[in-house]
Amino acid sequence: MYVQGFLVAVPEDKKAAYAEMAMRVAHKFQEYGVTEIVESWEEDVTDGKVTDFRMATKAEPGEKIVFSWMIWPDKATCDAASEKMQSDPFWQEDMSDMPFDGKRMMWGGFKPIYTTGRD
Fold first, then answer.
1. 2-110 classified as CATH 3.30.390.30
2. For a designed S-S bond to 54, which of 27, 59, 89, 116 qualifies (C-beta 3.0 to 4.6 A apart)?
3. Which residues, 6+ apart, have CB-to-CB distance to 92 below 8 Å?
4. For each of the chain's 119 residues, which pLDDT tens digit applies?
5. Beta strands in 1-119 (DSSP E)
6. Where exactly are the structural domains of the chain?
7. What is the pTM of this model?
């Protein structure tokens, strides 16, 4: 198992547009081999004193935090998907109007050290 995590601030009034975009890209990632995707919209995110999700994303008033992750069978499948994305016109044509500031999005890949409920 390999996990990619994502964090982004999205204008609250663009929640529906974000959800629509997330569903579109989920289908594409499923073609590439992802086994699970979770998209989570802020419900209970507290402000920290040293750091927090809002500071990390430079969230502005009226923006909500989206925390999401994708589960891949392994890093090799994830890396192969990344390669496919470079030449797939979907990412240039269909993703030209994102409902958030992509420069403030962060992501990374992680190898789990412990999970529950999975083999």
1. no
2. 59
3. none
4. 999 999 999 999 999 999 999 999 999 999 999 999 999 999 999 999 999 999 999 999 999 999 999 999 999 999 999 999 888 888 877 566 778 887 888 899 999 999 987 65
5. 2-11, 36-41, 63-72, 106-110
6. 2-110
7. 0.86
